[in-house]
From TrEMBL:
PROSITE patterns: MPN (PS50249)
Record key words, sorted: Cytoplasm, Initiation factor, Protein biosynthesis
GO biological process: formation of cytoplasmic translation initiation complex
Protein function: Component of the eukaryotic translation initiation factor 3 (eIF-3) complex, which is required for several steps in the initiation of protein synthesis. The eIF-3 complex associates with the 40S ribosome and facilitates the recruitment of eIF-1, eIF-1A, eIF-2:GTP:methionyl-tRNAi and eIF-5 to form the 43S pre-initiation complex (43S PIC). The eIF-3 complex stimulates mRNA recruitment to the 43S PIC and scanning of the mRNA for AUG recognition.
Gene behind this protein: EIF3H
Protein name from the UniProt record: Eukaryotic translation initiation factor 3 subunit H
Superkingdom classification of source: Eukaryota
Amino acid sequence: MASRKEGSGGAGGGFGAAKGKAKAAGGKQKLQHKFFGFVVLKIIKHYQEEGQGNEVVQGVLLGLVVDDRLEITNCFPFPQHTEDDADFDEVQYQMEMMRSLRHVNIDHLHVGWYQSTYYGSFVTRALLDSQFSYQHAIEESVVLIYDPIKTAQGSLSLKAYRLTPKLMEVCKEKDFSPEALKKANIAYENMFEEVPIVIKNSYLINVMLWELEKKSAVADRHELLSLASSNHLGKSLQLLMDRVDEMSQDIVKYNTYLRNVSKQQQQKHQYQQRRQQENIQRQSRGEAPLPEEDINKLFKPPQPPPRMESLLIAGQINTYCQNIKEFNAQNLGKLFMAQALQDYNN
């Protein structure tokens, strides 16, 4: 699934107009990001219809740049299909959708994409590659992460992210070696930057939400104060432990790499000593010394383990820790609220 979304490819063709308009209006200045409530409802509806369990749904964000604001005014989903659908062309599908929206005079310029997440599991290489392709083609583009599990707990969870300028430069060079990442001062804390967003509802959406609130039963509202959340907390802890295990494996690989480097240095030193002793013996016999050899060709340095994967795992661990912290704080708030309601009723 990641390969499909990774490309969405999106930023491949048909994005020139969006890029030109955005740069002309926004340039390098920092933009405010405004999401229309209609877009949020469509994203939620998309997940409810096609998202199951840890299945990820994704789609395209459409809008335009107005003065110092990036307005996301519409979106459309990527259709779910299997690997057997070899004839399906995603780029063609996106172009046809954009053409149809343009014909009915609806904003059709790409400004990013959205993705659902399962317990906050979105810090992946697939997301990094997808956002780089979008952000490289459309400078102002963002990725919107929707968390349905947090939303089901009574708090809408929507966060927008962009790649930091440092990480963009590293991705452009396509050099993810430990030396390059260290030189660019890349750590998991400065790989992604969260973008503040504002959700603007039309009067019709406000009326609809008001009607839905009136129809909801009092018992349904009290369910939000339930402390029966061990399943969610347990799942978050399990995912956290899985990532910690992956980090431990990466540490073992790195330690193995260091041992191999040290072993090779010893072998180089022994080889040079043998050559030096042999040249001394040849010189004493009046023979010419041995020709110089490129020692790096004889001893090829071991390849260091990929550093980017470790940074992504560390970033995902940090996300899980934040989720657990927020989850515990939310439960504490529910406990105080339930106690306040009980005191009020008494």
